């Protein structure tokens, strides 16, 4: 017997529903009893809802819990097992700093669209960027969609919530001269190989620092991006899967980069021989001084020092990736090829990110067409 319905002797039509719960930790049988006013059909519908919740591994009282209780459950049972560590950290941060303080104490079943909208408006009032507010909106939307799928609530309250629109941001990229100057200054530092690699491949910082020699094919001139090095909160440095399925990719290398890596590998072997057992060989292409993984933050700090020395403006390490992509597009490389090379999850992301390059490409396209017509 999983559930029963019996009519109670009351003035108004009232039904008692009983459902079997999973056996407790003490091995004893447990039951849940609920009273429903209305018709027999109302009681049948409530019984089906209770049984559906049990089948999905939820307590029949899930909808009575607070929003914070549900979000904690969602983080532990859905986000942490399925999402990259850095991403789950960001979700937890949004919930702790922005969502829970505003609507955490509200019963999930009583949550309304206005409540979710208040979370976003509160962030804007505090001066958070529209990008940060939209990210928080996506976290709420995913969490409450999960609540609907699990039968805890009937509707996703964020369906009618309007997040702020993003204002188009034009990337301020370093010039060719600036990048060349940076690499010249870096030549006398241990970071020259990895910075050259980032400029020539457009890889992400963590992808380069997570690269192992077994992922490098110098004979065919390719590297395989299969992992990324990240610092995860207090847990330290960790190798994690690529950002998305499209981020797991093969990147072709030009001849100069192949020769640079070959020379770098030879130098690394000499260092290993000199240091002997004190060198920790992890097979990394761009390790720290003693072979251990190089903290991404350390690379960024040293890059920023080089930028300051150039006295030619300010830009970020990640801008080397944007520089690489922009140069390819200006050289006429197809947008789809650039997307695959960068590992973007969709071509739309590539198009939106580098829309600033489009005007010059339009002019070049017009000139190409004009020259073609003159030959006819």
Summarize the structure.
The chain has 376 residues and is mainly alpha-helical.
Question: What's the SSE blueprint?
Answer:
Elements: E1 3-8, E2 14-21, E3 30-37, H1 40-55, H2 67-82, H3 85-103, H4 113-125, H5 130-149, H6 176-186, H7 192-201, H8 205-209, E4 216-217, E5 222-225, E6 228-232, E7 236-240, E8 249-252, H9 255-275, H10 296-310, H11 319-330, H12 335-342, H13 347-353, H14 358-375
Antiparallel strand pairs: 1-2, 2-3, 4-5, 5-8, 6-7
Helix pairs in contact: 2-3, 3-4, 3-5, 4-5, 6-10, 7-9, 7-11, 12-13
Describe the structure.
The protein has 376 residues and is mostly helical. It folds into 3 domains: 3-60, no CATH class; 64-160, DNA polymerase, domain 1, CATH 1.10.150.130; 176-320, Orthogonal Bundle (hpI Integrase, Chain A). The protein has 14 helices and 8 strands. It has a 3-stranded antiparallel sheet with strand order 1-2-3, with helices on one face. It has a 3-stranded antiparallel sheet with strand order 4-5-8. It has a two-stranded antiparallel ribbon with strand order 6-7. The longest helix is centred in the last third of the chain and has 21 residues, at 255-275. The radius of gyration is 28 Å and the shape is elongated. The mean pLDDT is 87.
């Amino acid at each position: 017997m999983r559930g029963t319905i019996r009519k109670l002797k009351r003035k108004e039509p009232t039904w008692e529903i009983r459902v079997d719960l999973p056996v407790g930790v003490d091995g004893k049988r447990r039951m849940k009893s609920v009273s429903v006013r209305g018709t027999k059909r109302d009681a049948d519908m409530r019984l089906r809802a209770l049984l559906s919740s049990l089948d999905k591994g939820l307590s029949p009282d899930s909808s009575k819990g607070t929003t914070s209780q549900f979000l904690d459950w969602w983080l532990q049972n859905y986000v942490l097992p399925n999402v990259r560590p850095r991403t789950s950290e960001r979700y937890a941060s949004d919930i702790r700093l922005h969502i829970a303080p505003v609507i955490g104490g509200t019963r999930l079943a009583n949550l309304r669209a206005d409540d979710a909208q208040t979370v976003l408006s509160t962030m804007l009032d505090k001066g958070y960027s529209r990008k940060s507010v939209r990210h928080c909106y996506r976290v709420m939307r995913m969490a409450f969609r999960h609540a609907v799928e699990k039968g805890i609530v009937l509707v996703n309250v964020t369906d009618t919530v309007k997040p702020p629109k993003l204002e188009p941001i034009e990337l301020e990229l370093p010039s060719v001269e600036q990048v060349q100057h940076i690499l010249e200054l870096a030549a006398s530092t241990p970071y020259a190989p990895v910075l050259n690699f980032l400029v020539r491949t457009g890889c992400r910082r963590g992808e380069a620092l997570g690269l192992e020699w077994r992922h490098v094919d110098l004979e065919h001139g390719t590297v395989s991006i299969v992992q990324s090095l990240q610092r995860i909160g207090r847990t330290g440095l960790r190798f994690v899967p690529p950002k998305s399925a499209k981020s797991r990719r093969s990147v072709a290398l030009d001849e100069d980069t192949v020769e640079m890596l070959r020379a770098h590998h030879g130098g690394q072997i000499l260092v290993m021989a000199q240091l002997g057992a004190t060198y920790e060989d992890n097979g990394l292409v761009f390790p720290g001084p003693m072979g251990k993984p190089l903290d991404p933050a350390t690379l960024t700090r040293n890059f920023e020092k080089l930028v300051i020395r150039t006295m030619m403006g300010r830009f970020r390490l990640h801008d080397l990736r944007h520089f690489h992509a922009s140069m390819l597009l200006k050289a006429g490389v197809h947008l789809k090829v650039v997307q695959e090379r960068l590992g973007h999850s969709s071509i739309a992301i590539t198009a939106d990110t580098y829309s600033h390059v489009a005007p010059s490409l339009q002019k070049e396209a017009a000139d190409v067409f004009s020259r073609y017509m003159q030959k006819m």
